[in-house]
Amino acid sequence: MDKTFTKEQLAQFDGQNGAKAYVAIDGVVYDVSDVEAWQGGKHHGNTAGSDLTEVIDNQSPHKRSVLGKLNAVGKYIG
């Protein structure tokens, strides 16, 4: 997992127009492209290509329980 993502680089992975959908949680970037709930790069008002650490900790009903099912693709350096 040597790849790193800046905020600008992560924003390119928004799940739109054929782009992969990535989200960052606690400095780890996860690929949510194949998650049905993330089709189109959006999930419950959140958009891919973003750091969603605060959202998953404070708003998500499943919290971090879903992270183990996702593929980590790199590190988020902001």
From TrEMBL:
Pfam families for this protein: Cyt-b5 (PF00173)
Coiled coil (UniProt feature): none
This protein's name: Heme/steroid binding like protein
Chain ranges of the Cytochrome b5 heme-binding domain: 5-77
InterPro entries: Cyt_B5-like_heme/steroid-bd, Cyt_B5-like_heme/steroid_sf
SMART domains with a match to the protein in the record: Cyt-b5
